[in-house]
Each structure stands twice: as structure tokens, then as C-alpha cells.
Amino acid sequence: METIYTADALLLIYSFVVFLFIGSFLNVWAIRTLDGTSVLHPRHSHCPSCSTLLTWRDLIPVLSWLFLRGRCRTCGEPISWLYPLGELVSALILTFIVWQQGLSLETFVILTLFVFILTLTMTDIRAKLMPNKITYPGLVVILLLRLFIHPLGLTDYGIGFFVGGALLTLLALVPNGMGGGDIKLFALIGLALGWQGVLFALFYSCVWGTVFGLPLKWAGVIKPRQPIPFGPFILIGTLTAWAYGADIWDLYMQLYR
């Protein structure tokens, strides 16, 4: 029994380290997509201020930023805290998925889904955009995966795709409703989680948006009619829906019985 626990712990530690580097790549993917440049070329990262090529010492996820105190080694200009935050959040969420479900083909599908959601969240935070250059490949990749890995049945995922897209299209007609990027993202989520999963994801995304958004509005941090990125709430709402959606809903409904 102790050997099993040790193996599980080692798997999670290894996963966390690997996912830190994946989070670093997602940062690059998000930024280069917003800049209109290729994620593959140039191969080497550089300082956005002085354009100095970064060495391996500057590219260790989270640790390099901490050791350099958030500044470029060459020019001393600040490096955004969004870099280490994106790496850390990516590693935590992806490791959590492995911890919840273990290693399986379905785990690979869910990890792939959240790789796209994490990247779109990064672009949304930086520029309030969810580029089609990320969403459309996500739809294609998840569709191909679901053709071969479909524990709920293909119809369920197909309905989820249309429910996610159609329902959000209706909400987009409401003043200050969803944007086009949100609609496509929920279509992607529906394709990955099925129709019940996407409905839970929408519900919990709105709950998290309310939990964090209202206090910020009351405190004056968010001004009236000020657009805010909804990507982070979709991220945590979808994670909540996938991991605990049905359980939380059942508990909620029991309060009214």
C-alpha cells in the first residue's frame, strides 16, 4: 500500500514539473498569437523590451522569474507577473486532472481541452480576445479525439457542441452578454464534455463570475459597463463542472427538497 502511495506521489510530482514547462509554452503560444507571429519561429524566446535572446537560465518556469525578481537579466525591465502565474496555474490545473482521473485515454482528452482553455484564458486576460487561431484548431483536435474516445457516445458530444454554441449565441443578444470568443469556447467545451457537461460549465462559470465580479464592482475596481475578461471564470467553471459538477448540483437541489 505504501508503495502505491509513493508511486502516485511521484507521478503527480513528475506531472507537475512537466506541466510547468507546458504552461511556459502556452504563455508563448498566447503571446505570439496575439502578436500575429508563429509559435514555432523564431525558436528562441527573447526579452520583449531589449530583444535579447533568453538562455536556459531565464526559461525555468516560475523559478527564473523569482530569481530575477521579475526583471530582465540584461536590461532590467520588468517582466510581467502573468508569465509565472500562467505557468503555475497551468501546472496546478493539469496536475489536478491527473490526480482526479489518473492516466487514461479520457484523461488525455480532458488535458487537451484544458490546454486550449488555458491558452485562451491567457489571451483573454492580456487582450480581452479569444483568437480563432486557437479555438478552431481546438475544435478540430477535440473532434478527432472524440471520434475515437467517446465514453458518453458521439451523439451526446454532438449535441453538446450545438448546445454550447447555440445557447451562448442567444445570450450574446443580451446587452453585455457573451462575446463571440466565449461562444466558440463553449462550443469546444460542449464537444469535449457533452451537453450536460457544457450546461454545468456555463452555470458554474456564471457562479464564479458573480462570486468574484460583484465584490470587485462594489469596491469600485470594476467600473459600470467596463468589459472584463470572462475567460478565467470559464476556466474555473469548466474545471468545477468536470470534477464536481453533478455532485454540487445534487447537493444544491437537496436544499430545496
Automatic annotation (TrEMBL):
Q: Where is the Prepilin type IV endopeptidase peptidase domain?
A: 112-214
Q: Which Pfam families match?
A: A24_N_bact, Peptidase_A24
Q: Tell me where it mainly resides.
A: membrane
Task: Write down what this protein is called.
Answer: Prepilin peptidase
Which PANTHER family does this one have? PREPILIN LEADER PEPTIDASE_N-METHYLTRANSFERASE-RELATED, TYPE 4 PREPILIN-LIKE PROTEINS LEADER PEPTIDE-PROCESSING ENZYME
Which organism encodes this protein? Tumebacillus lacus
Please name the InterPro entries in this protein's record: Prepilin_IV_endopep_pep, Prepilin_pept_A24_N, Prepilin_peptidase/N-MTase
Q: Which UniProt keywords apply?
A: Cell membrane, Membrane, Transmembrane, Transmembrane helix
User: Which compartments is it annotated to reside in?
Assistant: Cell membrane
Which residues are in the Prepilin peptidase A24 N-terminal domain?
20-100
Q: TM segments?
A: 12-31, 80-99, 105-122, 134-151, 157-174, 186-210, 230-252
Q: How does it sit in the membrane?
A: Multi-pass membrane protein
Family recorded in the similarity comment: Belongs to the peptidase A24 family.
* Record carries keyword Glycoprotein: no
Q: Does the keyword ATP-binding apply?
A: no
